Amino acid sequence: MKEIFDDKIPNFFGENRFYSASSWLKNYFGKKTIKLAIDGGFTCPNRDGTKGTLGCTFCSDSGSGEFASSVDDQISLLSGKWPDAKYLAYFQNHTNTYAPVGVLRQKYYEALNNPKIEGLVIGTRPDCLSDEVLSLLEEINRTHFLWVELGLQTIHEKTAKEINRCYPLETFDKATAELSRRNIKYVVHLILGLPGETEDMMLKSVKYVSHKPGIFGMKLHLLNIVKGSAMEKTHSDYLPFDSIDSYVDLVVKCLEIIPPGVTIHRLTGDAPRPILISPPWSFNKRTILNRINEQLNLRDTWQGKKYTP
Fold first, then answer.
1. For residue range 67-96, what is the model confidence (pLDDT) as tens digits?
2. What integer is the mean pLDDT of 188-195?
């Protein structure tokens, strides 16, 4: 993609000013492709006592899988709106590589054996990618569509300790290097608005992740304080951004330094209203996304405009 570093909006963005994952998927599969969030019944080493018992401080009781349900239920719900769509099975909540390899193999292939499923998306932690797990993922990747999602949230060790992440940055570095070496696509999650982080710190996290080898995609989450999380008790009055506009301003700055060829999978948070505590406006997902697009247009900027290799 020679043209991605030209000083113009890359033509593969389509109608957007950023490289949306939905556009990439439509180009790849030839039609609308939807991730179905499913609950694989996993837990997390940060919950079962292996590394901790309380989980990351921002994480809800469901392991950030509030929208997870069965594949058939979701297809039934979505088929009316998108009758010709294709589907990916998204193992979303908790840590979906945290089990014996035999268990993982059974769950992954059970999903892949569903004729309506085109491939897998697997959400996990960088510290739960053993050689055996990586070999299984490599095996699947050779014959099926796959990407892995890594919950990093921040590159700053002080913040990582405060959110009880329970692994160091070097573990993330090792995981991304191994996934890249095995040609497995990976997407990195970052949270914007974590307590104690300045705008400069958040931009440094984005820049660091942007330069990782083989990165396929990035998710930028707006921090939501939700019921059932540790932050409900410690940060119930915390406001990560004072307005939609201040959040949008930061997202635009983030997009400008992300390489144009990196797919964007999320630009905000979307906790269900019944469990949302703060920020009170974050459930307005469509408004936030519209304002991001509006500001990209008003500033005549786009993903990668200020990226430096």
1. 556 778 888 888 888 889 999 999 998 899
2. 98
pTM over 0.90: yes
- Reduced to 3 states (helix: H, G, I; strand: E, B; else coil), residue 30 is coil
For residue 100, whether the previous peptide bond is cis, meaning omega lies within 30 degrees of 0, is: no
Q: What value does the mean pLDDT take over residues 178-194?
A: 98
Gap between the Cα atoms of 115 and 117, Å rounded: 6
277 φ/ψ sector (left φ>0, alpha ψ -120 to 50, else beta): alpha
As a whole number of angstroms, the distance between CA 150 and CA 220 comes to 12
| CA-to-CA separations, 168 to 160, 161, 208, 210, in angstroms, rounded | 8, 9, 15, 18
pLDDT one-digit tens code per residue, 156-169: 999 999 999 999 99
> How many CB atoms are located within 10 Å of the residue 111 CB?
20
Q: What are the helix (H) ranges across the chain?
A: 21-29, 71-78, 101-112, 131-143, 157-162, 169-181, 199-210, 231-234, 244-257, 285-298
Amino acid identity, residue 88?
L
Collapsing DSSP states into helix, strand and coil, what is residue 90? Answer: strand
The pLDDT of 247-269, averaged and rounded, is: 97
Cα angle value 153/157/159 (rounded, 5°): 60
Domains parsed from the chain with CATH numbers: 2-298 (3.20.20)
